[in-house]
C-alpha cells in the first residue's frame, strides 16, 4: 500500500537541543565511532538475525535500505542528534526508528531507540520518543504506537514508564537479540490517550518525575 499523502521523506523533527534527522552518507565516520564507543553498552540490546544472509554488509548499504524504507512509508529511521554550545552542526547521540508502519485497519507502528551511554539519563530519549510519537499520530494519522523492551533493560523500561505507555504484557521469544530469541515486555499508546500530544504531557510532568 502506498504511503499517505501526508507522509514525506526525508523529514526532520526538532525540539530544543534535540534533532531527529535521517541518516546521511557522510555521517559514516561519526556514526561508526559512536557505535564503537558504545559496543559493550549496546550489545545486550542489539537486534541480530538467525538468518546470516540477511545482515547488511556496509554502512552505505544500511543507509540506502533505511532511507528507502522511509520513502516507501514503512519506517522512519532517524538519528538522534544534539545541538551543542560549542557551535557547529548537531552531533549524533543515538538512533530512533519507527518501523512496521501499518496502514488500513491497524494504523500502527513499533518504535525502538538507543542512546550514547554518556548521555543516558538526561531526558533525551523520552523527549525524542515523545516527538516521534506525536509525528506518528499527527502527520501520519496512526492510531497506535508500541515499544517492546527486554525485561532486563531497566533504562528503557524507565523511558516508557515516564511517558505513560501502557503495559500490555510479556511476549515470549519475541525478537532475536544478541544472538538468541528473547522475551520482551510490550508497551503501547494510542492517539486517543494523548489528545494534547505526548510531548506536551511529558514536558508538563517533567517537574513531578524524579531523576528525569
Structure overview:
The chain has helices spanning 28-37, 39-42, 59-72, 124-138, 154-163, 198-205, and strands at 13-15, 18-22, 76-82, 91-102, 108-115, 144-149, 166-177, 180-190. It has 212 residues and is α+β, with helices and mostly antiparallel strands. The protein has one domain (13-208): Gcn5-related N-acetyltransferase (GNAT) (Aminopeptidase), CATH 3.40.630.30. It has an eight-stranded mixed beta sheet, sandwiched between helices. Helix 4 (124-138) links the parallel strand 5 and strand 6 (144-149). Helix 4 runs antiparallel to helix 6 (198-205).
Topology record:
Elements lengths: L12 E3 L2 E5 L5 H10 L1 H4 L16 H14 L3 E7 L8 E12 L5 E8 L8 H15 L5 E6 L4 H10 L2 E12 L2 E11 L7 H8 L7
Helix pairs in contact: 4-6
Structural category is alpha+beta
Strands of the biggest beta sheet: in what spatial order?
1-2-3-4-5-6-8-7
How far is it from the N-terminal to the C-terminal residue, by CA?
A: 40 Å
The H-and-E topology, N to C, reads as EEHHHEEEHEHEEH
Task: Please indicate the count of domains.
Answer: 1
CATH superfamily: Gcn5-related N-acetyltransferase (GNAT)
| DSSP E strands, number | 8
Q: Could you tell me the mean pLDDT?
A: 90
**Fold-level CATH name:** Aminopeptidase
- Fraction of residues in β-strands: 25-35%
Would you identify the regions where 5 or more consecutive residues have pLDDT less than 50? none
Q: Class in CATH?
A: Alpha Beta
The main sheet comes to:
8 strands, mixed
Helicity, as a percent range = 25-40%
Radius of gyration: 17 Å
Q: In CATH terms, what is the architecture? A: 3-Layer(aba) Sandwich
Helical stretch tally:
6
> Assembly type of the shown chains?
single chain
Gross morphology? globular
Amino acid at each position: 500500500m502506498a504511503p499517505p499523502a501526508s507522509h514525506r521523506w526525508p523529514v526532520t523533527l526538532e525540539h530544543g537541543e534535540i534533532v531527529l534527522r535521517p541518516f546521511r552518507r557522510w555521517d559514516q565516520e561519526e556514526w561508526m565511532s559512536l557505535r564503537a564507543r558504545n559496543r559493550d553498552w549496546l550489545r545486550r540490546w542489539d537486534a541480530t538475525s538467525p538468518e546470516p544472509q540477511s545482515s547488511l554488509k556496509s554502512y552505505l548499504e544500511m543507509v540506502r535500505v533505511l532511507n528507502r524504507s522511509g520513502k516507501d512509508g514503512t519506517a522512519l529511521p532517524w538519528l538522534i542528534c544534539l545541538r551543542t554550545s560549542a557551535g557547529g552542526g548537531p552531533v549524533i547521540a543515538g538512533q530512533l526508528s519507527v518501523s512496521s508502519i501499518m496502514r488500513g485497519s491497524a494504523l500502527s507502528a513499533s518504535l525502538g531507540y538507543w542512546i550514547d551511554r554518556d548521555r543516558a539519563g538526561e531526558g533525551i530519549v523520552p523527549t525524542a520518543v515523545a516527538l516521534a510519537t506525536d509525528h506518528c499520530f499527527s502527520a501520519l494519522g496512526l492510531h497506535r504506537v508500541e515499544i517492546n523492551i527486554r525485561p532486563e533493560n531497566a533504562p528503557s523500561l524507565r523511558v516508557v514508564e515516564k511517558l505513560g505507555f501502557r503495559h500490555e504484557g510479556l511476549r515470549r521469544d519475541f525478537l532475536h537479540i544478541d544472538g538468541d530469541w528473547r522475551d520482551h515486555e510490550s508497551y503501547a499508546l494510542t492517539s486517543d490517550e494523548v489528545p494534547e500530544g505526548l510531548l506536551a504531557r511529558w514536558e508538563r510532568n517533567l517537574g513531578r518525575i524524579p531523576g528525569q
